[in-house]
Amino acid sequence: MENFYLFVITCILLIILPGPDTAITTRNTVTVGTTGGFKTMFGTCCALLIHTSAAVFGLSAIIVKSALLFSIFKYVGAVYLVYLGIKTLWGLRNKEVAATTEAAVKNKYENQSYFKQGFLTNLLNPKVAVFFLTFLPQFVDHGTNTFLQFLIMGLTYTVLTLVWFVFYIYLLNQISAFMKKPRTQAIFEGITGAILIGFGIKLALEKAHN
User: Fold this and answer.
1) Can you tell me the distance from the alpha carbon of 174 to that of 187, in angstroms, rounded to the nearest whole number?
2) How far apart are CA 88 and CA 28, in angstroms?
């Protein structure tokens, strides 16, 4: 594998850039705490493992080369992001009702919801598949086993993502007293909801790669 250290540094820079994964992790950490943040993070990392497997076995290439498949992933992912954004903004209008309902009724599927949000946000983003296909080959030594190299790089990216989000979630939790003030949370959730909708629209407008 060529320039592995450069690959790691580049991955770190890309991971810390705000994106849909960061937005949904931030939202769930601020509103629920570290439990919501970690479940979202694990969902994101599980989706990354699927993207890694897809890249290793060549499925990403099929998705990127097929305009139809790319469009399907693109629009489904965009709709889901817009849904999360609208749900966040709508929650601001129904905050008191939602709080009462959550206190009175315990949803047995509640522990899975945050994981699913992180999982689907990452999995249904075709740009992740495009990233793996276009970024990883730049560091491959074609004279050796490319299968193993892709696997190592994909796992490295996933582990770095995990480490970053652990730090990020704990950082958010440390300032939770400020972040959980009703006024601050309302503003923050409004901004996050708008960002999620923006990411969804941006994703929907992305041109398919032929």
Assistant:
1) 19
2) 10
